[in-house]
Design brief:
There is one protein chain. By secondary structure, this protein is α/β, with parallel strands linked by helices. It is 43% helix and 14% strand. It has 3 domains: 3-112 and 294-312, Rossmann fold; 117-203 and 317-340, NadA-like (Rossmann fold); 207-288, Rossmann fold (3-Layer(aba) Sandwich). The protein contains 15 helices and 12 strands. The strands form 3 sheets. The protein has a 4-stranded parallel beta sheet with strand order 2-1-3-4, with helices on both faces. β1 (46-51), α3 (56-61) and β2 form a beta-alpha-beta unit. The longest helix is centred in the first third of the chain and has 20 residues, at 24-43. It is globular. The structure holds 1,3-dihydroxyacetonephosphate and iron/sulfur cluster (SF4). Residues 68-70, 142, 156-157, 204, 232, 246-247 line the site of 1,3-dihydroxyacetonephosphate.
């Protein structure tokens, strides 16, 4: 790849602060690292997955697959690579490892945490299960492998409403996001579903920043703008949005919408993708950054491909992996609308 080619992909990005702004000079500095990663990727038969929230030079310079957690879980099911470099946070790398126990999975991030995944432990879930023995336990994908292992079905932001609606159980315990939990309660009411949903108290520190006042202000200033939010935002923000969905669904909504202006209520990485891929669409308002996702630097991807540090390699004990796998397989099954039959993890 040449610096000019990289610059053409990145030049329209204006959100995400200084780190996410690109000149030709900056691309000239980045491109030797990009090319070394591309060379090593071939040599090691590695594949690079990048969540939409990571820095644009990774998304447009080296990634083979880019998307949300559901899409990336599907992409990783079909790979013949020996090494999976998951440029995201730890729980996403763990999901890839649960699905691909024979492959080496590496998460290059310096700080691969997530305030949602870190808000609940397996011990908490075991205690809740004793307290609510007649509830089905549904975990958001933003949870550790040990938490997934204690739950019945995993969901992502792309399928949470559809899966909960399809479950045979009426009593649901959803964890760990309190905002998504309340959004789920409201959505079940809207769909006239009889589900009773309890939820845990976690939150995403990036999405909880958005307020209904911000939404009202944008509506006044830009009456034609479409307001698009992630279900990790609070219920008032969601109620006042034109569209709510996982990051890939948000992108798809923009892609198909004839509107010209958008307020994207999620991490800045998605807005960067919008500016890079749809330069004729206009972003209004501001966005927030996830320090965990942004702690994946291009040089870390190179270092991790060359010689991963112990903390970057995802390892999972087999008994926990097998239990967590069941909740992921249940997700794939329900996501495709199948209530019974052989679990066949095929993605749409
Ligand atoms: P998506 O599955 O929508 O990409 O969400 C993951 C996430 O961490 C959102 O903050
Ligand atoms: Fe976790 Fe929020 Fe960062 Fe997503 S944006 S990885 S939910 S802290």
């Amino acid at each position: 790849m040449t610096a000019q080619e990289l610059y053409i992909k990145l030049k329209n990005i204006r959100v995400g602060g200084q780190v996410c702004q690109y000149s030709l000079k900056k691309c000239e500095e980045l491109v030797p690292v990009v090319n070394e990663i591309l060379r090593l990727k071939k040599e090691k038969n590695a594949v690079i997955l990048a969540h939409s929230y990571v820095t644009p030079e990774i998304v447009y310079g080296v990634a083979d697959f880019v998307g949300d957690s559901y899409k990336l879980s599907c992409d990783v099911l079909n790979t013949s690579a020996d090494v999976i470099v998951f440029v995201a946070v730890r729980f996403m790398g763990e999901t890839a490892k649960i699905l691909n126990p024979g492959k080496q999975v590496i998460v290059p991030a310096r700080d691969p945490g997530c305030t949602l995944a870190d808000s609940i432990t397996a011990e908490d879930v075991r205690r809740l299960r004793q307290q609510f023995p007649d509830h089905a336990f549904i975990c958001y994908v933003n949870t550790s492998v040990d938490v997934k292992a204690e739950c019945d079905v995993c969901v992502t932001s792309a399928n949470v409403y559809a899966i909960v609606e399809r479950l045979p159980n009426d009593k649901i315990y959803f964890l760990p996001d309190k905002f998504m939990g309340l959004n789920l309660v409201n959505e079940m009411k809207r769909r006239k579903s009889s589900k009773q949903v309890r939820f845990w108290s976690g939150s995403c520190y990036v999405h909880e920043e958005y307020t209904e006042e911000q939404v009202f202000k944008i509506r006044l200033e830009y009456p034609d703008a479409k307001i698009v939010s992630h279900p990790e935002c609070n219920a008032q923000v969601v109620a006042n949005s034109d569209f709510v969905g996982g990051t890939e669904q948000m992108l798809d909504y923009m892609r198909k919408s004839p509107a010209k202006q958008f307020l994207m209520l999620t991490e800045c990485g998605l807005s960067s993708r919008l500016q890079a891929e749809f330069p004729d669409k206009d972003l209004v308002g501001s966005c927030t950054l996830c320090k965990y996702m942004k702690s994946n630097l291009l040089e870390d991807v190179l270092q991790a491909l060359k010689a991963p540090r112990q903390g970057q390699i995802v390892t999972i004990e087999e008994p926990a992996r097998l239990k967590a796998l069941k909740s992921l397989q249940a997700m794939f099954q329900y996501a495709q609308g199948a209530k019974t039959g052989v679990v066949q993890p095929l993605c749409e």
